[in-house]
Write a structure and sequence with these properties.
The complex is a heterodimer of chains A (478) and B (249). By secondary structure, chain A is an alpha/beta fold. Chain A is built from 13 helices and 23 strands. Chain A has one domain. Chain A starts with a helix and ends in a 6-residue tail after the last helix. Chain B has 249 residues and is an alpha/beta fold. Chain B contains 8 helices and 12 strands. The radius of gyration of chain B is 18 Å and the shape is globular. The chains are: A alpha/beta (478), B alpha/beta (249). The interface between A and B is medium-sized, with 24 and 33 residues.
């Protein structure tokens, strides 16, 4: 492929680069106990929650930012970040009509028309704009089944016993540097509880975005699937264009009790920085789920955004016969860096895990797969299958694979397959000869390459993800 | 339809085509034969617009337009089709998705509306039947895990779907057993009309028993050294290429 086309791809601008003027209620930059008290107070939290945050903060102070990952960036100045920002809307909203019209316009530009979504797709959404939930839909339908789907702030007020019981059980507050920071300062996020034996009748969906300059985002998500229940949860992100780096350190915890199943799908499209690699979101995320007996957790992610991504959605296969799955497409372009993968901890007997990772690197980016498969001493008959494929576009990008395998039981069966390929000129020419231009050819080839992962996404999300891949690699090749 | 005039082309520093002259009119079938390395595949790649080949002289005129000004996909939109000697695999892209994209991109290139889904489906059914292909072909990844014969049949299926004005079949017979050869050739014959033309590039007479050419050309060392009717193919089959080589040494 010619350099011209490569340049063209690389030059494709971030489609969602804009900001809106909404009055915000923002805490001055800096982090100390007083700021945490202020956040907790603004959110009218109970004492136990504040104590939990302060405890996390004390741990964080003693921790060091990790450096083992295969990414380089200027470490954020944590004292320059503002830890709380809420659109100024004091009263509770009964309908979308009451939402700030400017905010609704923003949604429309992002292609997230709530009205349309509500009417057409039957998806209930808890929309998070800068840390505070502004609209929650379909609550009634869900309530009839006893399903709780609300913002984390609301859950702390309304369902403190559930939050208190599960928060931090999967990702402890001292788990790692970013998780500890998140535990101290998280502002909002989503909470979901599916009662025993209930199959959630719709996909639960949250759209996250960052809208406040210099505002770190510290989302906290907790999904609890009680015995024998099922839920499919969708998370999607788009963020406006920025000059300064934005810090995003989310924590997601999934609890799948006996015989329960959680399907967690993510499309991530944070601002990746400009053509020179300036700006862009730092995405340091801790996502982990725990499976009890016969439970199943399936992570599917399509990662196209962020300047730096550090993310390993993991499964603790604690119960016998539990299953963990990880399906991932990670695209890096321009100067983006991604270090992503998964960890599968096999603790119970007959536990199974599947890892399918598809990395696509273009421009001057670096894309690393990092995965751990650990089979514990009591995990009889544990099985894992991993497939890690890398696709390179052009000759200035990098693809790296760091698989770690630790087996402590002789019956463990672990398979690992890896491939690295380039989009061949002969593939492009073949498409050209059939009337398909080079850009469409690349989109076609890339979508084919990612098919095994895209197939795991719910229908409407798959279409969105497919579009996103095309936009991310616009004009691109290999 | 296509007029090739003193065409010269090279790959890197190697001169391969040294002045090709060829004219093909609507309704005609031309066969181009020749020993290995004579430039047959280069000629088809240059007509299709492959960038690896540098055209150093001469011209190709397609329906009054200079082909050299057009990208490969634009040539396809004008109705030029190349059946590849070695069709490439595209994992994860089904035959039906690929051909749908090809048809609609070609239509877009010509300023036409995309084909209706129903029409597309009916056409796929018709053409798979024509080539005696099982419908399951359509949902397989393009050429991935296909046998040599399946790949060639899939090429002719695409040709049937795209309905080109000029089809160039590059060694379509290689890798085909006798039954597949009959089916593929039968398909090509059924697609023949007074408005389209076919150029068959082949090593052997065998395929020409099924696809009867109006003209046969012998390509040797980058030039067409002999042209004639169908009898020329038989002569080559009997005598081999040595006498051509000797004559042009």
């Amino acid at each position: 492929m010619s350099d011209e086309i490569l340049d063209e791809i690389t030059a494709s601008d971030y489609k969602y680069g804009f900001t809106t003027d909404i009055e915000s209620d923002t805490v001055p930059p800096g982090l100390n106990e007083d700021v945490i008290r202020l956040i907790s107070e603004k959110k009218n939290e109970p004492q136990w929650m504040l104590d939990w945050r302060l405890d996390a903060y004390k741990s964080w102070l003693a921790m060091v930012e990790p450096e083992w990952h295969n990414v380089t960036y200027t470490k954020p100045d944590f004292q320059a970040v503002s830890y709380y920002s809420a659109p100024k809307q004091k009263k509770e909203l009964d309908s979308l009509d009451e939402v700030d019209p400017e905010l609704l316009r923003t949604f429309e530009r992002l292609g997230i028309s709530l009205d349309e979504q509500k009417r057409l797709s039957g998806v209930a959404m808890d929309v998070v704009v800068d840390s505070v939930s502004v609209a929650t839909t379909f609550k009634k339908t869900l309530a009839e089944k006893g399903i709780i789907f609300c913002s984390m702030s609301e859950a702390i007020q309304e369902h403190p016993e559930l939050v208190r019981k599960h928060l931090g059980t999967v990702v402890p507050k001292r788990d790692n540097f970013y998780a500890a920071l998140n535990s101290a300062v998280f502002t909002d996020g989503s909470f979901c509880y599916i009662p025993k034996g209930i199959r959630c009748p719709m996909e639960l969906s949250t759209y996250f975005r960052i809208n406040e300059a210099n505002t770190g985002q510290f989302e906290r998500t907790l999904v609890i699937a009680d015995q024998g229940s099922y839920v499919s949860y969708l998370e999607g992100c788009t963020a406006p264009s920025r000059d300064e780096n934005q810090l995003h350190a989310a924590v997601v915890e999934l609890v799948a009790m006996d015989d329960a199943e959680i399907k967690y799908s993510t499309v991530q499209n944070w601002y990746p920085g400009d053509a020179e690699g300036k700006g862009g979101v730092f995405n340091f995320v801790t996502k982990r789920g725990i499976c009890e007996r016969n439970a199943k957790i399936s992570w599917t992610q399509v990662e196209t955004g962020s300047a730096v991504t550090w993310k390993y959605p993991s499964c603790i296969l604690k119960g016998d016969n539990s299953i963990g799955e990880f399906y991932s497409v990670a695209v890096t372009n321009k100067y983006q860096q991604a270090d992503t993968g998964t960890k599968m901890f096999h603790l119970g007997k007959n536990t199974k895990s599947t890892i399918i990772s598809k990395g696509i690197s273009a421009g001057k980016s670096h894309n690393s797969y990092r995965g751990l498969v650990r089979v514990g001493a009591r995990a009889e008959n544990a099985r894992n299958f991993s497939q890690c494929d890398s696709l390179l576009m052009g000759d200035q990008c990098g693809a790296h694979t760091f698989p770690y395998i630790e087996a402590q039981h002789p019956t463990a069966q672990i398979e690992h397959e890896a491939t690295t390929s380039k989009i061949g000129e002969d593939q492009i020419f073949y498409c050209n000869q059939r009337g398909i231009g080079t850009e469409e050819a690349i989109a076609l080839i890339v979508n084919g390459y990612c098919k095994d992962v895209l197939n795991q996404l719910p229908m409407e999300f798959a279409v969105e993800a497919q579009k996103l891949l095309e936009v991310s690699l616009e004009g691109s090749v290999g | 339809m296509i007029k090739i005039n003193n065409l010269q082309a090279r790959v890197e520093d190697k001169e391969i085509l040294k002045g090709i002259n060829l004219e093909v009119n609507p309704g005609e079938i031309h066969a181009i034969m020749g020993p290995n390395g004579s430039g047959k595949s280069t000629l088809s790649s240059v007509i299709a617009g492959r960038e690896d080949y540098q055209v150093t002289g001469g011209s190709i005129d397609f329906e009054g337009e200079n082909l050299m000004d057009l990208d490969p996909e634009e040539r396809a939109h004008k109705g030029i089709f190349l059946s590849f000697q070695y069709p490439v695999e595209i994992p994860g892209v089904t035959v039906s998705n690929f051909i749908k994209t090809a048809i609609n991109e070609s239509r877009k290139g010509r300023g036409e509306e995309p084909m209706e889904a129903r029409e597309m489906l009916a056409k796929m059914r018709e053409k798979t039947a024509l080539l005696e292909m099982d419908k399951s072909y359509l949902s397989r990844s393009l050429n991935e895990g296909f046998s040599g014969g399946e790949k060639k049949r899939n090429e002719i299926f695409q040709m049937a779907m795209l309905e080109p004005k000029l089809a160039i079949l590059d060694e379509t017979d290689s890798g085909l057993d006798i039954d597949a050869l009959r089916i593929v050739a039968g398909g090509v014959n059924k697609l023949r009309s007074a408005d389209n033309a076919v150029v068959v590039i082949t090593h052997y007479q065998r395929l020409l028993d099924y696809i009867k050419p109006d003209f046969v050309h012998v390509l040797f060392n980058g030039r067409i050294v002999k042209s004639g009717g169908p009898e020329l193919a038989h002569e080559l089959e009997e005598k081999g290429y040595d006498w051509i080589k000797a004559e042009n040494a």
